[in-house]
Fold this protein.
Amino acid sequence: MKKIIAGFLALSMTACGATPVEEAAVSELGIKTSAPGLIELMQKVSGRDDADCMSPAENVSVCFVSEGREVYSFTFGDHPAHPAALFRGYVEVEGQEALQLQERGWYAGDEAAARAFFERRVRSAEQPRRG
């Protein structure tokens, strides 16, 4: 029954012009970390030669890396979840031929606000592309 519902939702979303969101094979949302660690991550990602960063929403920066196979979303300013970061991307896994979709979310502020941020971003238009 779940497969039928999932198929219907994917078909409905496609018919409406929305891209279905693939479920991640590895999902670790809600990893508590330090604010300086998140700032360092944002600086490293945005400083990469292959990073294309933009701010599609207020107080959120999105960086596409590795030709769009990896997408990082960072909060800043007055965002309720700040500081928080979300990674969704296709990564190589030892012993597997196909790339695996993984997602990780880190926060150093309010946990509930961070979880809400992760949920919104996972369903956003900024999805990683399979390599």
